[in-house]
């Protein structure tokens, strides 16, 4: 389905930021308490969300949830993990855009169905929440949060079905968008992946325990064996009888998020049985084949650009060196309130190795340009450090269209490539040359059929209809503008 957006609507939705990135981890064990294992699993998934963390466990009768704002390691400690007793449990780490970073929005969410507790952890973004919310409000349902996950949970809670499995199936039949979801009941874990398979979800095993996690890197940390991906449209139940799988929805188009492969998933994770480091390495090789440049050195913007930079170097035979030292103790700098603070943020994170780059012609590789602000800062720092020429190479195509399926890309601002040509971006960055990898080059590097992926952020071809969310975003933007003008006047 092609729901290409144009003109004003596109401009409007660019300026709203409502999307989420998250990591989920669940374990069903017959042997030991799982809270600490979930804690380690969530730490391995920390890159998927840094704003809040939570764990829900069941002791067979009751579900206990502990969650708070912050990194996994700052939310949990021995004291608050100790009371989380139970052999089955789920965890969640969440990133939310500004304004929505409230405790009540953190997950797992806790609800009841027919008097029985359940907890939900969700990675993805539902796109028909406004009509669903309206329907639920009419029924008298009250909402405590602004999350799409609560709407999903409320559909289960208010279902008239006999069993929670039936209620979940009914809820899924109503929601649209992207979801990899874990549901914990007192005695089972249910894992669901949307029929498009937008977000990753991996199944693993350790001894008698089953694990479901957003990425395989979370299996490695606890020495679990990777079994397979949860299939798009799959409904997986793990309980005392073992593992049962059902395909509940026909999959008419697989469309895994391409950005997971470019940037989001950790390089040591596997998707489509392929290692993300190697895939990104090949992206760099393709980039060098498509847009080679004479230069003395290849450097990366660490860490996201490193595998592609090394790949670029191997294909171009230009030596790869470290051009920056990264301060690994600084958190995310992507969304910052003012340009000055953003500038300091980049400097805090990256410092160029002056003697290495001085008087050198550099190929600088990064995975993507979103707004261009960080890239501009990086270029400035390299010239200040004495670089003679900078040839910027990006291992993905220009980002033009917003993501409605769960990647937070640009909050309240525009993608630079939406309103500037490549040549204009080159001038904005102030570099000698700029080139992006083509969609075909990307597909070649991955080595999977093109129609397995969602490329909407590059080409506007949205696999699941996004008209409702566009309408809603336009409306919220209008009310926000009205609110702001009242505040100003
Ligand atoms: P900018 O030059 O400001 O557009 O920033 C580009 C940098 O942002 C690149 O290094 C990307 O790896 C990084 N990036 C891309 N997408 C995201 C995202 N969703 N969240 C945080 N950083 C991102």
Supply the helix-strand structural class.
alpha+beta
What fold name stands as the CATH topology of the largest domain?
Answer: Glutamine Phosphoribosylpyrophosphate, subunit 1, domain 1
Bound molecules: adenosine monophosphate
Average of per-residue pLDDT values: 89
What would CATH call the architecture of the largest domain? Answer: 4-Layer Sandwich
Rough shape? Answer: globular
State the low-pLDDT regions, or none. Answer: 1-19, 480-489
**Main pleated-sheet profile:** 7 strands, antiparallel
Number of helices: 19
The proportion of residues forming helix, as a percent range, comes to 25-40%
Our measurement of the CA-to-CA distance between the termini, rounded to an integer number of angstroms, reads 44 Å
Q: Measured on Cα atoms, how large is the radius of gyration?
A: 23 Å
The quaternary structure here is single chain
Taking strands numbered 1, 2, ... along the chain, how are they ordered across the largest sheet?
Answer: 3-2-4-1-10-9-11
Number of domains: 2
CATH superfamily of the largest domain: Aminohydrolase, N-terminal nucleophile (Ntn) domain
- Find the count of extended strands (DSSP E, 2+ residues): 23
At the first level of CATH, what is the class of the largest domain?
Answer: Alpha Beta
Strand residue percentage: 15-25%
């Amino acid at each position: 389905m092609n729901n290409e957006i144009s003109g004003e609507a596109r401009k409007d939705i660019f300026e709203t930021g409502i999307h989420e990135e998250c990591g989920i981890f669940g374990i069903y064990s017959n042997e030991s308490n799982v809270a600490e294992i979930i804690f380690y699993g969530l730490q391995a998934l920390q890159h998927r969300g840094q704003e809040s963390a939570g764990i829900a466990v069941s002791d067979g009768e009751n579900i206990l949830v502990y969650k708070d704002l912050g990194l996994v390691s700052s939310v949990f400690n021995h004291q608050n993990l100790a009371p989380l007793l139970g052999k089955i449990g789920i965890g969640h780490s969440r990133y939310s855009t500004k304004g929505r970073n409230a405790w009540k929005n953190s997950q797992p969410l806790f609800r009841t169905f027919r008097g029985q507790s359940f907890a939900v952890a969700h990675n993805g973004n539902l796109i028909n929440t406004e009509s669903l919310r309206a329907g639920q409000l009419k029924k008298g349902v009250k909402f405590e949060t602004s999350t799409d996950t609560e709407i999903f949970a409320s559909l289960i809670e208010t279902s008239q079905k006999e069993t929670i499995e039936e209620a979940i199936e009914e809820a899924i039949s109503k929601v649209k968008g992207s979801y990899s979801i874990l549901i914990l009941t007192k005695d089972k874990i249910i894992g669901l992946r949307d029929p498009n398979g937008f977000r990753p979800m991996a199944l693993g095993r350790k001894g008698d325990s089953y694990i479901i996690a957003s990425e395989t890197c979370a299996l490695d940390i606890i020495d679990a064996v990777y079994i397979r991906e949860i299939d798009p449209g799959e409904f997986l139940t793990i309980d005392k009888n073992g593992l049962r799988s059902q395909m509940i929805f026909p999959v008419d188009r697989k469309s895994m998020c391409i950005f997971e492969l470019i940037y989001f998933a950790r390089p040591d994770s596997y998707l489509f049985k392929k290692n993300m480091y190697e895939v990104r390495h090949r992206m760099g090789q393709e980039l060098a084949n498509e847009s080679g440049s004479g230069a003395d050195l290849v450097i990366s913007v660490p860490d996201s650009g490193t595998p592609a930079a090394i790949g670029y170097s191997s294909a171009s035979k230009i030596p790869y060196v470290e051009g920056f030292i990264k301060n690994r103790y600084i958190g995310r700098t992507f969304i910052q309130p003012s340009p000055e603070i953003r500038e300091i943020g980049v400097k805090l994170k990256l410092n160029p190795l002056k003697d290495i780059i001085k008087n050198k012609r550099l190929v600088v590789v990064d995975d993507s340009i979103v707004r261009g602000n960080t890239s501009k800062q990086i270029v400035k720092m390299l010239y200040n450090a004495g670089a003679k020429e900078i040839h910027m190479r990006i291992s993905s195509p220009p980002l033009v269209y917003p993501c409605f399926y769960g990647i937070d890309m640009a909050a309240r601002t525009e993608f630079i490539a939406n309103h500037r040509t490549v040549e204009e971006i080159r001038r904005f960055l102030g570099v000698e040359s700029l080139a992006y990898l083509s969609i075909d080059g990307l597909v070649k590097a991955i080595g999977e059929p093109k129609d397995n992926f969602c490329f909407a952020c590059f080409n506007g071809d949205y696999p699941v209809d996004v008209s409702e969310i566009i309408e809603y975003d336009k409306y919220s933007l209008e009310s926000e503008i009205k609110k702001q003008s009242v505040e100003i006047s």
